[in-house]
Amino acid sequence: MSDPRTTAAMIEAGQELSASKASVPRWRAWLSSWLGRRAPNWFERLLPASLLARFLLVMSLGVLASQLLGNLIWATYLKGKSEQEVKQASMHVATGAISAIQYFHSLPLNYRQLVIEQMREMGGTRFFISANTDEVVFDGISPKPLSNMVLNEIHRDVLERLPQLYALKVSFAQPERLVVNNAGTQISELPDHWIKNTLLIQPRPAPILVIQAQIEPGQWLYLATLMPDPFFLDNSDPLPPERWLLQFVTLVTVLLLSWVVVRWITGPLAALSNAAEAFGRGESPILPETGSVEFVRTAQAFAAMRERIVRYLEDREKLFTAISHDLRTPITRLKLRTEMLDDDAARAEFHEDLDELDMMVKGALQSVKDSDIHENHTAISLDAMLGRMVRDARLSGHEVAFTRCGLRVKGKPLALKRAIGNLLDNALYYGQSAEISVYEGVGKCVIVIRDHGPGVPEDALHTLFDPYVRLEHGRHSNSHGHGLGLGIARNIIQAHGGELVLSNHPEGGLQAMITLPAS
Predict the structure, then answer these.
(1) If you count Cβ atoms within 10 Å of the first and of the last residue's Cβ in the chain, which end, N or C, has fewer?
(2) pLDDT, tens digit, for every residue of 126-148?
(3) How far apart are CA 85 and CA 44, in angstroms?
(4) Closest to 223 (Cα-Cα) out of 119, 107, 89, 152
(5) Strand partners, 441
(6) pTM, to two decimals
(7) Who's near 168: CB < 8 A, 6+ residues apart?
(8) Residue among 133, 136, 132, 130 at smallest CA distance from 117
(9) Rounded to whole angstroms, how far apart are CA atoms 372 and 491?
(10) What's the angle, vertex CA 171, arms to CA 168 and CA 175, rounded to 5?
């Protein structure tokens, strides 16, 4: 019976909780409800099962998303900056080219070559210049957004300020493929002092801008120069392979650190899970009180919980023993008093009721003791255990079919024998004959005990494990039973980390399927 003060405290706490819920704003309650919704089933199926895999997946997606966003922002910024710098540099180069074209156009034809030779010998000019009778043909570089922008800007600026030109060609070329005149002379064949202050060939060649303007019929002016930033085309690719390599190294580093941290966190959780599973099998595991403060507190709380459960089980056994002892005395006195009754029929009825009451008390006490057998876990040969049970049943005149399997399980021998024995006894009591089959699964053993009786109505299957529940057929077949055997068997099997399922066999009869972890 519960303490009235405890009940009153619970009622008062419930009233305070109701009052606090009533005072919560509607929008906050809606937000809490929305955040508390479970993820869809399909989303749960997509997620990995372990905490380590889920954490690594979330970290990978988070790092990748942040890197992609950062790269997008960086590429946009670099593209805008590069375009602005390229436009300014193009205007500067175009201004110099326009001045050079205007100057040479103003010179008489026979003076132009003399001036070009003087400029080559003196140096200090921005352009390498040559005069040709026709356009010089050479291989240009592959088109890129920044190079196309330079060519378009310079072409537009020159034509806007020199509309009298007959033709204008603007292009980029690499030094090793650049031809400088109609004679086919390549830039690498020219004297160094002609080009060392104008063009960059060594140690790292830079693209050369070539402007060819037809100032008169049959007269082309050839201008070659470098951009103010000779390697401006490197900015055409804001995400070079080196940047991707750096980000890949960052991702791997984050994942490794996350793996270490999660293993560090999940290690104590795994130890706690193993300890709880071992305690459920009847062992007495001890969690080491080392590590973080949270785990030390968890280990201490687990140890305190284990002690409380052990004390509870001991007190329960003592309580049932005391109840059984205290009830037997008045039952015995009542039996003695019934002997003094003159009415034989009434005396027989009293004896029958008292015998039934005595059997119920003994059955309840037996239920407590049978589900708490103190044994050590050991490897059990199913062939040896089941073989002995089958031999005993056959000596008693029962028909039992069994085939050896060669499998082993780990558990308490006496407890497991009692559980399987209860199921086999039920099969023989209610089905006259039984079949025992053993199968091997992935990390588990399955024992199936089938009888050839009438079976059980489908709507009554879920009630078979309830205490003192006996169906009509069972009461006729076995009048001395208490209805506790199935419940005891299920408790023992669950304590071994297994499962007991009852179902009707398609060909008739009831079958009990026991699933146990394999040894």
Answers:
(1) N
(2) 888 889 999 998 888 888 888 89
(3) 51
(4) 119
(5) 444
(6) 0.44
(7) 155, 158, 159, 211, 212, 213, 214
(8) 130
(9) 9
(10) 135
